[in-house]
# Entry
Amino acid sequence: MPLVAAFKRWLFRLYGPEPSPIVLTQRRIYVLPTRPGLAYAAALGLMLVGAINYNLGLGYALIFLLAGLGLVTLLHTFRNLVRIEISPGRVEPVFAGDVVQFGLQLHNRRGPGRFAIRLKLADGEAVTIDLAPEASTAIYLPLPSRKRGWLRPGRVTLETRYPLCLIRAWSYVEPDMRCLVYPRPETSPPPLPLMAVGESGAARSGRGSDDFAGLRTHQPADSPRHVAWKAVAREQSLLTKQFSGAGTVQAWLDWDTLPQELGVETRLSRLTRWLLDAHAQGLAYGLRLPGREIPLGQGERQLQDCLEALAVHGE
Amino acid sequence: MANRNAHPGNGLSLARSQELWLLACAVLTLAPDGARAPGWLIAAVALALLWRTAIWWRRAALPPRWLLSLLVLAGSVGVYLTHRQFFGKDPGIALLILFLALKLLEMHRIRDGLAVVFLCYFLLFTHFLDEQGMDVAGITLIALVVITATLSNLAHAGRPLVDHLRLSALMIAQAIPFMLVLFLLFPRVQGPLWGMPTDAYSGMSGLSDSMTPGSISSLSLSGEIAFRARFEDEIPPKPQLYWRGPVLRLFDGRTWRIGTQQEKVSPGGTASGPAIRYTVTLEPHNKPWLFALEMPLAPPSGAFVSHELQVLSKTPVRSRLRYDMQSHIGFVPGVDEAEPVRHRHLDLPGNNPRTRALAEQWRREATQAEAIIQRMLGHFRTERFFYTLNPPLLGANGIDQFLFETRRGFCEHYASAFVFFMRAAGIPARVVTGYQGGERNPVDGYLIVRQSDAHAWAEVWLEGKGWTRVDPTAAVAPNRIEVGLASAVPAGEPLPFLVRADLTWLKQLRYRWDAITNTWNQWVLGYDPQRQRELLSRLGMPQPDWKAMTVVMAALCGLLLLGLTAWALHRRTRIDPVQRAWNRLSRRLARIGLARRAWEGPADYTRRVTQARPELSPAFAAIAGLYIDLRYGKLAGKEAQQKLSAMIADLDIPEWR
# Structure
């Protein structure tokens, strides 16, 4: 039903990512009674019948006061949401299948505090926060990633039922932000194709040739094969073995060396795993993809460049 | 979007603080019911509350569902056995109380908490079925603040108690203007909408349709207000204030009863003197008669004047009723009363031989009916008759005993004996009950008539005159008519506290209080369709029908909402004027595509602007310099701020190069 969709787009002002900061102006806040709110209204109707039937002057007064309270809470609920400013915050890249944490910066520029504001991405878990007066608050909205590439959070729903649960005020915002999702590393890949650059110039394979150089703290991307299990037993924290000999061992991770029948995603997965392994072992490595080559290099920057190339491959 | 209203928050578990609040709320709401609900229900509810509190205290599990279902069933059966029905006021309230108590035992999620709060609101409402005084209104308002705070606590458990109470009080204060508008303008409908359950009007007191020795004297012990009257002109003198109620014709030797037929035929007669106009506000007494000064002529709408000059409403008076009346004090009805009617007023049972014999004797000795009447009144006056609230009990020949032995009685004894004697002497006579007198409240000018003003007197039919009032009590105790009950009965008799003549300062206080209560009754409780129309046309609404009221009500509510919206959007905190000026500069430059970027400091911004538009350079640099000094340097003060504003306003920005 494209007409309904178009109407919704018009009504809720859904025009794609918006420049920041996004201010929740009064025109983009919607209010409707909640289910308890409807029950409250029904109870008032019932009381009104009773007041008419028994001629209860004070009963009328109570009903009208409660009806007034319903209207007042409408404004309070609205006020709890209006003029909040939202800007995109930090987003860390993740591997496909992991949960992205979209950081948002919420700014309350007004006197009263905001309470029980619930934020939610379409497919993510809701987060409920309070905003102190005149303060900024950083929150992270989780969203599970499914596939590699750029992931946009899409529409954020901000809603509140504070203070009386009778009215729901909500607004949609679409902050201009995205998260890079790397391909998921393959779980049991073939060993890393290594190439030793010695006097002979011949490539030799195997990991044993590297000299053990020390330990560093474990990072999620590190291969489990390099976890120093003995150290774990001793130190009670995960450590990763590091190997020297980077200068002598290179790894060229080449798309074309992988069998075609694996399919694009599996090939990218394997390359990702190898990249991580190579990085963990401190090797110099390069990446060859169709139409793109990242020369040999080392370090975090090299890892990120390579992962990004894999993530956006084919886009 | 599909399930928009089903907030997942409703399914969350209640926090412990929320549970405690809800319990307190329920106790506060149920407390007034303790005086009214049946005993077993009070005990059951108290047990349920204690049980729930124990569960809360020990963090124990809630009772299982089957047990709760069993309790609901048992409670409902109990309500049925107590009231023999489920519909109606009392069983309805009992069921609500029961549900609230059992909901507490089931309550563990936010959703349950919401149900408890709504039940509390509803129970507050039901308290008005029993009482609608100002004290009840005040208590209800306090309870309302607490219940609303509990509701707000359900939306956010983390805030301190005081915040919730403050917010709740604020919201209720903001709701009061809406209440006033709706109260005045919501088109009122005269209830009831359907036939009322039989139990609705138990416990109303007032004159009944019969009179036995002792029935009026026991009513006299009540200080309750029977009705209030407001006269257009002066209040007539006290001896003329005979408020006519049920006229009793049938006598069985002990009890006087009302005649069976109530004909609408006018008794005839001519009115003399000006009409007295007044408005009566009658307290509900669950009987059809209305009270009016003797003699009522024009009945109010919805009522008629019977042949015996009783004003009768078509339905029993079950809510406070206000009606306009007209009476002629000099009017004597029934000059042309037909023979069969007169004859009916001579019927007597066969007892009281001594009275009959005396009446027979006097009749032989007298030539005129008036002479017999005067002789009888003289007899009351000169013989040792006493006016007292505590007369001795009378036996089978009660009138004989009273006239010849005890000689102590209250107005019903005198009226009864007098009418009996007249009939025995061949004069048509009847007993009239009603109220005599009343006291004027000097604060608001209303005449207050209490149950203690209840009175009984006699009417005799005289040839050529018609039905003439004779008050034998006046012969025995003239003070009763001239001054009031308090001065007529011997000191030490148990009069209602509020009727006693001493304690003048208390009386003053009471007048003031009664005037306030009366205003409350007239304008809050008695604000009915008629009064609404009157008030609105007095306020200048040309045609106050329901359409006009709805339009005005909607418009006023809209205005109030608009005001509240302005309040909601109002910026509490003013931003710094320096920052405001700096923002204005950015807005001005936005027109030529040089808005300040969010991360840009003044120095970076100046660099970018002067690069893009060198002709702005000197003026802009000066502005930026002043801004930096004001913002980050030591420069401060109103003058510098104004200078900055002026410079920004004066900055000449050519549209395009």
Q: What stands out?
A: Chain B touches chain A through 73 residues (CB under 8 Å).
